[in-house]
Amino acid sequence: MVYVDTADITWLNTGESARRLGITPRTLYRFIDDGKVPAYRFGRVIRLKESEVAQFIEECRIAPGTLDISALDPEESESVTPKSAT
Predict the structure, then answer these.
(1) Alpha helices in the chain (DSSP H)
(2) pLDDT-based confidence at residue 75 (cuts at 50, 70, 90)
(3) Where is the Helix-turn-helix domain (predicted)?
(4) Which of 2, 30, 47, 49 lies in the 20 to 30 Å Cα band around 78?
């Protein structure tokens, strides 16, 4: 058996993780199932490492000049499109 010192790990429940990511718990479960966000099961409880949630947020960062505005939802693209372009 492997012993891992978890004293320095901050664990988040799924509700707090979803809030930090700005998504619903259902979407979080899908991300976990798809392997996008690592999670850990302790009995019937699912926990996520705070550091891995923060890392996921950083990995989702959009690099300047790479945003395809045409791929946005219509409501979002209206707020991004300059008024002179409409």
Answers:
(1) 14-21, 25-34, 50-59, 74-80
(2) low
(3) 11-61
(4) 30
What token pair was written down for 4? 């891992």
Range of the domain at 21: 11-85
Report the domain count for the chain.
Answer: 1
CB 34 within 8 A of CB 72: no
Residue 80, pLDDT > 50, answer no
Separation between Cα atoms, residue 29 and residue 24, nearest integer Å: 9
Q: Give the C-alpha separation, 15 to 26, whole Å.
A: 10
Nearest-angstrom CA–CA distance, 49 and 58: 14
4 within some domain: no
